[in-house]
Amino acid sequence: MIYQIYPRSFKDNNSDGIGDLQGIISKLDYIKNLGVDAVWLNPIFSSPNDDNGYDVSDYRNIMSEFGTMQDFDELLQGMHKRGLKLILDLVANHTSDEHEWFKQSRSSRDNPYRNYYHWWAAEKGKPAKRYSFFDVESNAWKYDEQTNAYYLHYFSIKQPDLNWENPKVRQEIYDIMRFWFDKGVDGFRMDVIPFISKDTNFPELPEKYHGDFIRYYADGPHLHEYLHEMYREVLSKYNVMSVAEGVGVKTNTAMDFVDPERNELNMLYHFDAIDIGYLPDVYKTIDPKGYDLIEFKEIYSKWNDLFGDKGWGTIYLCNHDRPRMVTRWGNDSDEFRELSSKMLTTFLFTMRATPFYYNGDELGMTNIKFDRIDDYRDIETINMYKQIEASGGDLQQFIEAQKLSARDNSRTPFQWNDTLHAGFTSGVPWIKVNPNYTTINAEQQEKDDNSCLNYFKKLIKLRKQTSTLIYGKYTLLDKNNMKVYAYTRELNDHKILVLLNFSKDDAQANVDLKVANAKRLICNYTDVPLRNDAITLRPYEAVVYEL
Ligand code: NOJ
Questions:
Q1: I need a surface site. Which of 208, 279, 291, 403 has the fewest CB within 10 A?
Q2: Are 377 and 320 in contact (CB under 8 A)?
Q3: Does the model's pTM come out above 0.85?
């Protein structure tokens, strides 16, 4: 079980309003007590923070706002002492434009670092269109006067893409990985790793990828050759784990990354499920009407089946790029926030995959839903806003939509207690604290046996004690039920039934299994219903039976 920490928003120790490594160190006992096995930290390397650390200017140093290398060593030691593993974020598709390699590269056409990045000489004419995620014009080619050439940036103009086709670049990255592994780091989450290999002729986007450029980006010509090389030269030499951010990867290609016989990576997290319910626009608008549970079940089942015999899956409902779990997939109203949050946690911990759980979701933290663009800090929201502004689009509508979908919703400070700024900082927080910290916070939930936090801990214990929940075969039941997600997990003769009501109404689970006398392993309601074998679930009820 992997717990994801967004360091910028977890705990500030030096009152500058920004979370830091000493802050995390001060909360190691909290993390240990959750019962998780490993922590994934979003990037902590030196960075000008155009994209909150996903723009690295020095891979062997700690971002000054987060602390020093000494702090890092202390953190790693503190985690290992407690039996926790530490996974760092490898951002290797691109660097910051303030990285020394890029400064050299852009300085002249014959600089030895020129080929560390992708350049297109302007005398060849304009390069073929490549889309950028964080560019006001969605243009991934930026003209650079100094050498009369364009450089490629799939993300912001301050995130130039590295040229992985250059063997020297690959060796640099492998060296960086060795540097951290030699320090004792236990693994890497690999940022947009499917994007690393590119056809350096940069032809027009092939016809079949029109409207789906992400799949094109994720399907470069030498991608698997490089991942295999990385395994051979680095990963195989250490006892570590690797997980790809599987952007653009579908079930037909996923096994190429994680098939143990191919010797590439251990796991991948896909976007198929997290992407459900978006409207077909470019502003990442989530349909406010909700999502289709049948589609949700189909996708999770399909991915489960893919790893039935080999490979291994992951599961998550939120991360730093997505809105809060309970707002997005549950119901964040006062009436149902706790119940639905616990129900979703039950889902994550009873599926056959490694759960990645985002900090704050264990408290049922909710989207902040900013009313004003000035409250946003994220380059993605800010640049989309500028784009709409420039084209005369509906800004109010955009602000409304961002209340559901913006990344900053999950980046607000962790809610530790009910003192000023939720106990996150004694300074001025870099982004506003969600005002609901007075009622939703860790301190209060620690004392309450029925809190989201304590439910989360109970579930983790249950999963750890029950190998059927980890390894058991998954079978979907009552597939066409629009409100209930029901499945069994089976290992040898042991069988578990999971029933989850994803709706705010009572709902019938049509499973042909007798539960009247079955043992209830966990439930998010404290009172036991009178249940005959026709199973009616209460709103957002989650119940796990041993059959
Ligand atoms: C994926 C990361 O999760 C996201 O936060 C970042 O903006 C992009 N990759 C670019 O590195």
A1: 208
A2: no
A3: yes
